[in-house]
Fold these 2 entries.
Entry 1:
Amino acid sequence: MNAIHLHLIANHIPILGSVIGLLVLIAGFFFNNREVRITAAAILLFAAVGGIVTNKSGEEAEEVVEDLPGVSHDLIHEHEEMAEKAMPFIFGTAVLAAATLFGEIKRKKFARIASLLLLVCALGVSALSGYTGYLGGKIRHPEIDGLSLPTTGNQLEDED
């Protein structure tokens, strides 16, 4: 597995993990359930670690794809800039998720505050990771914006 494979696989972890973790955390508050908040914190910690792996593998992946035909340097730059904006939220989520896990498991008084701060960070990570992934997808998937795909002679024709 090379950096591109790792980047393409890992990039789904912060996007999906943060949304799932956020929803589970909201449920934990709604039902006032400590175990659900612990589960949410574990999911969000996993999502944050996935975000860090994705970010670290992105530089090497960029080196490979930037010279491919049809790849826009502007799109790569836009994707990279958004990833840099997401990183403080990803690191914050990692720290707050770890603090929430510790606090909830040990029944510390700060656990509720850590969970609330984690909720705010998870909202930011969900939005920023999702948008970063969208921008990354545009690099090699023009169909994301409804652009026509180039046709080749290998496509099947409609039979009427």
Entry 2:
Amino acid sequence: MHTVTIQGMSCQHCVASVAKVLQEIDGVSEVEIDLSKGEASYAGEVDAAVVKEAISAIGFTVLNVK
């Protein structure tokens, strides 16, 4: 699993938005969001830049992708 640290998630709507955008990326599976930690986890081999761009495009700041 890969973990993305995201700034700006504050509610379940934010969680749903991030989950949706991650699930739309080819190659991403098993998306899990932890609102209290501000993290999203996913399985799959996808370029970190693609993940960062997708999340940034919906208004959140990506602090780290690992």
